[in-house]
Amino acid sequence: MTATASTPPAEAATHCPYCALQCAMTLTPTPQGPAPVRVEPRMFPTNRGGLCKKGWTSAELLATPDRLSTPLIREAGELRPAGWDEALTRIVAQLQAIRREDGADAVAVFGGGGLTNEKAYQLGKFARLALGTSRIDYNGRFCMASAAAAGNRAFGIDRGLPFPVEDLDDADTILLLGSNVAATMPPLLGHLAGARAAGGLIVVDPRRSQTVQLTADGAGVHLQPVPGSDLVVLLGLTHIVLAEGLADLEYLASRTTGSDAVRRSVAAWWPERVQAATGVPVAQLRAVARRLAGARGAYVLTGRGVEQHADGTDTVTAAINLALVLGLPGRRGSGYGTLTGQGNGQGGREHGQKCDQLPGYRKIADPGHRAAVAEVWGVDPAVLPGPGAPAVQLLGMLGAPGGVRALLVHGANVIVSGPDAARTRAGLEALDLLVVCDFVLSETAALADVVLPVTQWAEEEGTMTNLEGRVIRRRRALRAPDGVRSELEILADLAARLEAPSVWPTDPAVVFDELARASAGGIADYSGLSHALLDAQLEAGIAAHWPYPAGSGGTPRLFEERFWHADGRARMVAVRPRERGTDDGHDVASPESAAAGRPAAQLTLVTGRLLEHYQSGAQTRRVPELADAQPRVQAELHPATAARLGIADGDPVVLRNRRGAVTAVAQLAERIRMDTVFLPFHFPEDECANLLTAAVVDPISGMPEFKRTAVTVTAAAPPLVTATVAATVDAEAGEAGESPSAGLVSERGVAA
Amino acid sequence: MTAPLRVVLIGYGPVGARFIEELLPALETGLVDLVVLGAEAEDAYNRVLLAEYAVGATTRERLEVTDTAAARAAGARIRLAETALEIDRERRIVRTSRGDEVGYDRLVLATGARANVPTLVGLPDTRRSHGAAADSGPLPLPAGVIALRDLADAEAVAPVVAGGGRIVVLGAGVLGMEFALLAAEHGARVTVVHHGPAPMARNLDEAGGRMLSRAAREAGLGMAAHARAEAIDFRDTDAGRVFDGVACADGTYLRGDLLVLSCGVGPRVELALAAGLACARGVLVDEGLQSWSDPHVFAIGDCAQIADPSSVDRSGRVSGAPSGLIGPGWRQAAAVAAGLRAEVAGTAAGEDAAVSAHERPTVVMLKATGIDVVSGGDHLAEPWDADAEVSVWVDAARGAYLKTVIREGLLAGFVAVGLPHAGAELTLRFESRSPLPVEPSALLRLDAADADAAPVEDTLGPDATVCWCNGVTAGRITEAAASGACTVEEIGRCTRAGTGCGGCKGRIAALLVAAPVA
Q1: Is B503 within 8 Å of A193 when comparing Cβ atoms?
Q2: Percent of chain B having pLDDT more than 90?
Q3: Could you give the C-alpha distances from A645 to A361, A676, B406, B461, in angstroms and in order?
Q4: Interface test with A, best of B59, B452, B495, B505 (most A CBs within 10 A)
Q5: What's the rounded Cα separation, in Å, for the pair B298 and B306?
Q6: Which 395-424 residues of chain B touch chain A by CB within 8 A?
Q7: DSSP letter at A226?
Q8: A264/B367 CB distance under 8 A
Q9: Do B455 and A671 touch (CB under 8 A)?
Q10: What is the CATH number that goes with domain B372-457?
Q11: Largest distance between two CA atoms of chain B
Q12: What is the residue extent of each domain of chain B?
């Protein structure tokens, strides 16, 4: 056993490793138990002592049999165990050679929204100072980028919920757009109970998701627009609020700019036109607009369903505009927010993992911001690279001429989570060097040249920033297995070998102190916080919502006095849907060729999460209870659509377009629109939903369009049986057509 | 630097305004010089909402669709209350009502349409007044008779509606019905006079139209079917002669305070005709919205008829007509602006600089509270027709009617009355030209009374999920209860149900009460 600096305490008050709700839990080591720690929920404002299935089973991953405990190096095509020195030596030699040959930007870094603040900060610093590359971005580009861009544009700041999550409790109306919280962060449901009791939970989703089912029996309303039309729904609601005289004109006059332009722009979206474009009946639109306007306290909340689009930023802007005409943001008991997804999706987007950003949500292109951070780092601002490329563009550069030759991946499984998985795979395979830090051999790690084993959540100290911008402590309950290192240690070692300037501490508390200094004066100011302060107030449940400048007590509610633009006002920006075709660039293979004679339907694919799994599934698919509950990818189809395609519940189906094909098990449910098919995105290889999605991005945020993919759906016919029947039918051509299946086969026979 | 391209736009309605917005980048860079001539004294406004404005359901401010100040700031010279009288294509100038001559390199006609005035005793004959004068000013209608085409018309309606007055609407097209229903909703006593058995004859089959008629009567409208108006009478008041009533061919006399003519519209083409530009119903343009006769002239919106020059038949006629709808007009405005932007930038015009001549007839939807009527395409096929797959459902008791016409696997037309969800889905399918993913009958369930109720699974059946946070079913809970867990807490310990948000504890308790004692 390696000696460690300190012995973990008997129990650790920490938070769940998964989503951004960051449910509080206490871990108690159980050396004799089935898992190395016992999980107990802890009272905390977000989860109030509750946990979902993922949280309860989170300790099982600590004991997963395929945990990595030694670096791996690819040799003759195979990964083999190696020592740390050998692995790091190889990495450094290749990085130096590539940089010498093609410049610093030939090396890129891909981070993750699950990394602690300390790791995210250090990774950004490492990219800029040790590698000298501008090319760093992270998987938050796949989830939070559009909401972040819209928030910055409207409010001058991007904090997912600009109020504590408990504020939702007292609302009688909540408009939830594109978020299935009942599956993705179930303990949040407790905060929707008030709105449900008041009959005011309004959910916009092309599926009657689990969350939508909570609107049944008078608890609320479900709007079921065609995928990709959320922006128009929002323009229509804003139109009605303005047209029916329901807007808060006094608020618009005193707290916003740009409302005239928005009023004029939504004038073109009268309800009937909105119905024609979205499928949402006029009466529902009017009822929802009136409900929102008449509410005692109302919130507008967005999620990935409306954000993961090529017009995601504009869609969120439209949601914010609706909230603003209703006078919600910055008024106690009402507001707008986005529900951040990943565990540290908030903190991870603040401290320098984004390609255009420095710590404290500073801009890398701003000379003043560069100087401030360079001073903390003890370097000349001139050595800091400029803005790099956002994630999807970055992945497109892999192995390309003038592109990226080496990629370091931290806290991400891009081959599963990125759009157009075949494109990503080709890029990863074309690299000279792929280094992946992970604690299991994820699908991306399996493609790596060097894999470095790192600590898991229960084995490390640090901080996370949850969906309400509250900085919380992740605390250690266990020693990491022998041979495993923290990413801070790895980055420090690599920085030393690369002769990087500045200091590279490995103690998370020390790294946090540096982060706090680097963020001082920035938008996301953490300078008044430290591990010690957070620990000292742990029992009191410190409400450390940033900005938390030195000497302050934090900022639970951001907009009570003013918005973050210089004039203190929120900026309303008129947006409108772009004219576009029915699919993403004629990307669908023709139904005839795809279906090989079987009945086919062109449907719109939407992707999303299941209760049992998290992100790429690299973690949750290794937890037996979760994997047993959801072992395979299921395609959710409407029974009427399935009936026309000859598909029964449980049948194998194929979803196909020009980018790829996915075989899934049909799950028939009336809850989905008849023109839509749903796939969860947690599964790898030929079950990977992202084999179908396109690398098309929002022009402002760089967010890919995950939620509007044209696919052709058919039954996956068992080939041998079909061949037999076809032969029979050919032989008895005169009698073909007796049964539907024979008829179909005979059509195919004719076509052939 | 070369001189800017001089563009003149005639007509400042919503389509003209969209054209200006799309052209702004070229104005800002000084590559285009734009003059706009607007006959009305008002900035462009949203004519689609004129009826709402007329009955007081919305305000003037909310009709605004464009930022005139921004356009002016970008350099557009917008001249209101100034009518184009003549186009001299040889010299490329437009003569205006203020005696000015405005030169152009590119001329864009967005002159729109005017209301048709039927031939009735007591109304002026306006059918054939040639020449540019016809394009100026409002229609010369007697007091108490309007055609609800502009703001002044709308302002004449307001006091009648507010005072609960009687309104006769002549014509039961979609606009007439919308206005009639809206006026009745806001307190007016309204009678609709129309030909034939049912309203909206252009957009609905007879059964659909009769369903609408029935709904309209229930909404308090008088529906005078098979009525042929012949004359209007006037009475003398302190304010002079005003409208008194409509006399019909069958001898009925419908008295009212206001007569609203809703007899369709005709494209304003007089200016173009006088300038020798090819016109049929509208100004004839190709898919790039360029005049058949003059490459320097474009037409967009209600005055523009897109047709292929090869489509002239032997007698020299061109079939078709402007769509009369705002959506296509806006697309045309954007296309011409894109073409001009490309021209001044010296780049090739992209796909966005044209629209399709074969743009599908757009879906028509009645704007009315509580009455859902939508139709599109060819809906006249009958169930027994051999060349189409026709499906019809009627549930008269609930005011529901649905008809779908499928040809070659695609939705060729439909009518939906009283079925808002089904109508909305059919609209989407029709406009995206994609096949119905389901049998048409499946759409009916979208509007079923229980469609928004709990999902198909039995909410207390064994497979129903009770605890969302932990994915625990009712069956699992009753099992645990049967094995000895008697309290909500004990159920939580052995199944985790109720240990998330806690919202299901009440249902767990209910299941425990119902469960057989272990």
Answers
A1: yes
A2: 61
A3: 50, 14, 18, 29
A4: B452
A5: 11
A6: 420-421, 423-424
A7: P
A8: no
A9: yes
A10: 3.30.390.30
A11: 100
A12: 5-116+266-353, 130-263, 372-457, 460-518
Write out the two tokens for B273.
């005709």
Q: Does the beta carbon of A628 lie under 8 angstroms from any beta carbon of chain B?
A: no
First to last CA, chain B: 94
Q: What CATH superfamily classification does B130-263 receive? A: FAD/NAD(P)-binding domain (3.50.50.60)
DSSP state string for A16-30: -SSSTT--EEEEEE-
Of the residues A212, A275, A588, the best mutation for testing chain B's interface (the one with the most B CB atoms within 10 Å of its CB) is A275
B428 and A CB contact within 8 Å:
yes
Supply the ipTM of this predicted assembly.
0.83
* A54 → chain B, closest CA residue: B470
- Whether A270 sits inside 8 A of B434 (CB atoms) is no
Residue B361 at interface with chain A, using a CB cutoff of 8 Å: no
Q: Which has the closest alpha carbon to A456: A477, A435, A439, A437?
A: A439
pLDDT digits (tens, 9 = 90+) for B75-115: 999 999 999 999 999 999 999 999 999 999 999 999 999 89
- Cβ atoms of B189 and B164 closer than 8 Å: yes
Tell me if B130-263 shares its fold with B372-457. no
User: What is the per-residue pLDDT across A495-549, written as a single tens digit (0 to 9) for each?
Assistant: 999 999 999 999 999 999 999 999 999 999 999 999 999 998 776 667 899 999 9
Within an 8 Å CB–CB cutoff, is residue A640 touching chain B?
yes
Question: Looking at residue B359, what is its pLDDT?
Answer: 63
Q: Rounded to whole angstroms, how far apart are CA atoms A633 and A688?
A: 8
Which residue among B423, B499, B501 sits closest to A189, beta carbon to beta carbon? B501
Q: Is the peptide bond before A547 cis (omega within 30 degrees of 0)?
A: yes
pLDDT digits (tens, 9 = 90+) for A354-400: 999 999 999 999 999 999 999 999 999 999 999 999 999 999 999 99
Span B5-116+266-353: which CATH code? 3.50.50.60
SS3 content of chain B, % helix, strand, coil (to 5): 30, 25, 45
> Which helix (DSSP H) or strand (DSSP E) does residue A741 occupy?
helix A740-751
| Listed residue (A71, A99, A133) closest to A449, CA to CA | A71
CA–CA dist B500, B504 (Å, integer): 9
Fold of B460-518: Arc Repressor Mutant, subunit A (1.10.10)
Which residue on chain B is closest to A247 by alpha carbon? Answer: B62
A273: contact with B, CB 8 A cutoff:
yes
Cβ contact A276–B431 (<8 Å): yes
- Cα–Cα distance for residue pair B347/B343, rounded to 1 Å: 6
Whether residues A245 and B465 touch (CB distance < 8 A) is answered with: no
**Residue in B423, B455, B469 closest to A670 by CB:** B455
**Which residues in chain A come in under a pLDDT of 70?**
1-9, 539-541, 579-597, 718-752
- Min CA distance, A179 vs chain B (Å)? 15
Chain B interface includes A505 (CB < 8 A): no
Q: How far apart are CA A125 and CA A129, in angstroms?
A: 6
Greatest pairwise CA separation for chain A in angstroms: 89
3-state secondary structure labels for all residues of A280-324? CCHHHHHHHHHHHHHCCCEEEEECHHHHCCCCHHHHHHHHHHHHH
Q: How many CA atoms lie within 13 A of A160 on its CB side?
A: 33
List the single residue in A with minimal CA-CA distance to B56. Answer: A244
Contact A187 B500 (CB under 8 A): yes
Question: Could B425 and A603 be called an inter-chain contact, meaning their C-beta atoms sit closer than 8 Å?
Answer: no
CB-CB: which of B64, B374, B432 is closest to A267?
B64
CA B117 – CA B124 distance, rounded (Å)? 8
Q: Do residue B438 and residue A638 have CB atoms under 8 angstroms apart?
A: yes
